[in-house]
């Protein structure tokens, strides 16, 4: 064996050191989270034990313990019993050694149960040293991102393969050692060197050495500051809580995360590989299972409740198929979410995005056919494209699939044709289907006609267990309460909408007039063609179908009037609408409206002017918040959202901010994010900011004038009048 053999052994050794290093760095980062978490969890456990009445000990022992004398002695909680210890307990009249031992054993069993279920809540509005330490520790792993998980998994697998080979190749590390080795050891060493050469070449082609090095750098990088960690937590709380649940060893119930699928189907799904090469986002456990379900079953409906990340799961599937060599995918969705889909695919994957919409859609279609990528189009535009040849499209994704439940509609017929021609199909809908068998059957028929026939006729109400068993081959649904083990998180979604032609006309008129406030509410000036209003209806409808309450905020009373008319309860759809809460409504009346809203069983909608309801009211009955337009003052949005996302909220709060592309909304968001994000986040925590929120906001007048002038220039309105003040 020549010098080349020794070099391969050396390269393999260095590769092994890099792999071992990244595994060690990750273990230390996880260990830091556990160390920061433990005192917080101990404090939660202690509070719960101090609140548990001593009578619960009798339940643990099935009534065998008599606790009257214990309570009379002043020990009234389980925590106090644990603190008392055996000596103090034996001093209580009627409590001997055996009873004391039983008391302590029962108390410890309760303490263990509480410890297993104790959840730590991270409150960004009340940071203290222990929670700051936890947020900083989590920040390291969140910042490292999915590449860190990929690197650690690859490093662990590589280390397992390298170890035995390096041991066998030991004699080949030096010329004299090889000469002195026996025939059998020499043959084993030479074979190991050949295997190491192949393994190292494979790892280098996959750029694993670079991945290991970069991951170690990411895991060892210091957090810039406490403030930076807290701001990032507020922006990505779901990722922090997801990591926390994983590290704390409190994953959701497996059956719930797997949608209560029959075991034989769930087992096949678990065995499905999921390639993350082209994916730029980490998946929660239930999301990874959902993506595997789609891959394993090929044509399915993913019916997860709103807020569980159906879009992310779909992108994970597309990324996997792209890694397998598929080149073309098609997403069909309502026009109101087309912009969101293009942004999500672009930011959460490395896949090319092609928009098939608008005047140039046919040219874009030809480009997609030639170069591939993820094409995104609308239900109406789909009808203008020829159906693909069999196998030409790797997957068809249909978002808001309940929109094609009517088989007589032309859009439904177009989708059905494409679904037949595609080997894989994924329908996404957050609308519960358990009690709508007829509608559900129509969707299933596009994917699996035989199963649709087996569901029978009619629209009978069936139990969820029986329903899920019948449709398990094609349907997976998880609810938030089943799979989110952390305390409620705050999820922000910017809903970018492409303005309709009518919206554009109203906006241009406002720009020409130099009216900043009219520009901000132009998207609602012509309700019959409003893109924002259409998306708002969809959000409220889906929230209602999931039994959730929604609060809709706007700066403008006339916008709330338009929204109220659009959401007015229709026959057979009695979702009540309360408000609007405005500055003209007396405070006592406001509270009565809020109480009535909260007192409704099931879904309801509350309309509120943001400056009137953003402070002082408790809106925790709502778990969905809609902001009709971006606010000039960041504090206005923070305070409004805080009315729902506060102590006592039992569900994750989802905030949808409606934004129109290409105009004042984009400029507002860009300016405010660039100039005030960190400063605003810091100032909100100070007493001065709470008392005088105006002190930390960009000047209304300066901002308005700047935006109006820039928009007039962009739209070529050089002869337009000067900008009006924000109140005009």
From TrEMBL:
Q: Which Pfam families does the record associate with it? A: Helicase_C, SNF2-rel_dom
Q: Which SUPFAM superfamilies match?
A: P-loop containing nucleoside triphosphate hydrolases (SSF52540)
CDD domains reported for this sequence: DEXHc_Snf, SF2_C_SNF
Q: Which keywords has UniProt assigned to this entry?
A: ATP-binding, Helicase, Hydrolase, Nucleotide-binding
The Gene Ontology terms for molecular function here are: helicase activity
Give the PANTHER family listed for this entry: SNF2/RAD54 HELICASE FAMILY
Protein name as annotated: DEAD/DEAH box helicase
